[in-house]
Design a protein that fits this description.
Oligomer: single chain
CATH superfamily: P-loop containing nucleotide triphosphate hydrolases
InterPro entries: P-loop_NTPase (IPR027417), Thymidylate_kin-like_dom (IPR039430), Thymidylate_kin_CS (IPR018095), Thymidylate_kinase (IPR018094)
Organism: Eremothecium sinecaudum
Shape: globular
Protein name: Thymidylate kinase
Keywords: ATP-binding, Kinase, Nucleotide biosynthesis, Nucleotide-binding, Transferase
Number of domains: 1
Strand content: 5-15%
Bound molecules: 3'-fluoro-3'-deoxythymidine monophosphate
Number of strands: 5
Mean pLDDT: 93
Strand order of the largest sheet: 2-3-1-4-5
Structural class: alpha/beta
Radius of gyration: 17 Å
Distance between the termini: 24 Å
Pathway: Pyrimidine metabolism; dTTP biosynthesis
Order of helices and strands: EHEHHEHHEHEH
CATH architecture: 3-Layer(aba) Sandwich
Amino acid sequence: MTRGRLILIEGLDRTGKTTQTNLLLEKLGPNAQLIKFPERTTPIGKLIDKYLTERSFELADQAVHLLFAANRWELSHQIEALLRSGKHVILDRYVYSGVAYSSAKGVRGMDLQWCIQPEKGLIKPDLTLFFTTDTAAERQGFGDERYEVEEFQKKVKVKFNDVFKMFENPDYRVNHIKILDVGNKTVEDVAAAVWSLVSDHIATNKSTDFMYF
Ligand code: FDM
């Protein structure tokens, strides 16, 4: 039996990741499961949630980065088991968010190379769709969480580019990252583009091996 595919939807804040991952889950039906990172209900996820929602809860940036990575490790066995059982797993954010957001803080020593270390060994997505937009209007209306500040979001956008460049390096064997400009597109248009890429990927990729960061 071929394993399920690991499909990641990544992107900037307010680009519709959550809407689109839910629509994709509906389309793929019972043969798929959606996992959102951070997964805020686990022991580590609860700490992350507290950090994001309570400004007075201080943690060292390095420690926060390791918590986000640990949150992925908490779910790594479950993800692998689902894929081996033949289920597709849709991820809403994953390693690339981890590296982009942490390195965007500009903390001494916390460069891309530092940030990727605790992610090494996690299963790599088979297909990554990165949602981006240049439309200022699309980027209004951030929420109240710690990172939802326009200045910081601009830095994150630059870092996502750096992260993808780093993964083009042959050492990292980049895998199927597709950039989707969602600015000025309707939910239906984006959903159609996502479905075309995902259904094509599932129809043509049958490998049983996993790739790892
Ligand atoms: N975020 C998310 C990180 O900083 N590192 C990570 O590894 C992940 C998965 O957490 F600002 C940031 C991105 C965002 C915040 O994410 C919460 P959601 O998608 O808004 O819940």
